[in-house]
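Sequence in, structure out. Go.
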Amino acid sequence: MDYSNLIGEIRKKFSRRSDFAAAIGMHAASLSAKLNGKSEWKSDEIMVACDVLGIPLCDAPQYFFCPKS
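Output:
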């Protein structure tokens, strides 16, 4: 998956990815694995991430389900 839109939102709202990881209750290493496609996002993680980033759930597909071109 292409998480560039998600990474952009994280950069807008948090100075570091580790700060975002802490805000959603996730270890920085787990977040890194998810953003690098080594681990999959669970639905509850997506909901929390959307809430923290202010992303409406109806827009989640453009952040979490974009295939790589």
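Check: The chain is about 60% helix and 0% strand. The radius of gyration is 11 Å.
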